[in-house]
Write a structure and sequence with these properties.
single chain, 249 residues, alpha/beta, Rossmann fold, 4-stranded parallel β-sheet, 46% helix
Length: 249
C-alpha cells in the first residue's frame, strides 16, 4: 500500500506550524493516496522516523518521502536522505521514494510577481526588487536564485537582486544597502519564505533600523499559496510515475 510522508521544516513559532499543517491538509484532500502523514525536520514532533513508523503501522509497503522545501540544499541533499537510509535498515521490505522539493518553477515565479504587484500596481522602471532567501552554503542556492532573477526579468521585472539571512553573501544588511544604491526609487523586498515566522521578524527589524528605511517596501512572503498545492501535487505525481516505471522495468 502506498503512503506519502510530508516532511515539513518545523518552527519554534506555533503559527508557522499551523500554517504548514493547514496547507498540507488541503493538499492531502486532493490526493488519492490511502496513507498520508505529516512529520518535521526539526523542533516539532513527529520527526521523520516517527512519521515513517506511522505510515508502516497503517499498512504502507511503499513510502513517498516528500520534502516541503522551496529549494534543494542541505536538508534536501543530506538530512532527509540520511533519515531514509536509517529507515531502509529498519524496514528492508519497504520501498522508499524520495520526492523533489518545490524547486524553481513557473508557478513560484507567478507568486513572486503577485507579491510584488500587491504592493506595486504600476511600472517598476524606477524601482528595484530585493529577494531575501534563507541562505545556504550549497552552491545550488545562488544558481537557483540566478534562474529566478532571469525568469522575473522575462516577465518585465528588473532589476532584481538577492540577499540571504545566513550562510551566503550578501547577507541581509548588506543586501539592503546594495539595493538602495541601484537607483532613486523604492526597493520592494520579497521574502522567499513559506511562512511569516522568526525570519520575517528579523527582516522587519532590519528595515526599521536602517537609515534608508523609507526606501523599502516589504512584501508578503511566498506563503502557502494555492498555486503551491498544484505544484506539490505535480511533485507527488512525478514520484508515483517513477514508482510505476520502476515496477515495470
Amino acid at each position: 500500500m502506498l503512503a506519502i510522508l510530508y516532511v515539513s521544516h518545523g518552527s519554534r513559532v506555533a503559527e508557522g506550524v499551523r500554517q504548514a499543517n493547514h496547507f498540507l491538509k488541503q493538499c492531502m484532500d486532493q490526493i488519492n493516496v490511502p496513507i498520508q502523514q505529516i512529520c518535521y525536520l526539526e523542533l516539532v514532533r513527529p520527526d521523520i522516523q516517527e512519521g515513517i513508523s506511522r505510515c508502516i503501522k497503517h499498512g504502507a509497503d511503499c513510502v513517498i518521502v516528500q520534502p516541503i522545501l522551496l529549494l534543494s540544499a542541505g536538508h534536501d541533499k543530506r538530512d532527509i536522505p540520511d533519515e531514509i537510509e536509517k529507515a531502509r535498515a529498519v524496514y528492508p521490505n519497504v520501498r522508499f521514494i524520495y520526492g523533489r522539493p518545490f524547486g524553481v518553477d513557473d508557478s513560484i515565479i507567478d507568486i513572486l510577481v503577485e507579491r510584488i504587484h500587491e504592493k506595486h500596481s504600476g511600472s517598476v522602471q524606477n524601482d528595484s526588487i530585493l529577494i531575501v532567501g534563507r541562505g545556504s552554503s550549497d552552491l545550488e542556492t545562488p544558481r537557483a536564485f540566478s534562474r529566478i532573477c532571469a525568469m522575473l526579468a522575462k516577465r518585465g521585472i528588473s532589476p532584481v537582486s538577492v540577499c540571504y539571512m545566513a550562510a551566503a553573501k550578501p547577507l541581509l544588511k548588506e543586501g539592503l544597502e546594495l539595493a538602495v544604491e541601484q537607483g532613486p526609487g523604492k526597493v520592494y523586498i520579497v521574502p522567499y519564505l513559506l511562512f511569516s515566522g522568526i525570519l520575517m521578524r528579523t527582516i522587519r527589524k532590519s528595515i526599521e533600523t536602517s537609515v534608508n528605511r523609507f526606501s523599502f517596501v516589504l512584501c508578503k512572503p511566498l506563503g502557502y499559496h494555492p498555486s503551491l498545492i498544484h505544484l506539490l501535487r505535480k511533485r507527488i505525481r512525478e514520484s508515483i510515475d517513477y514508482d510505476r516505471l520502476s515496477a515495470q522495468s
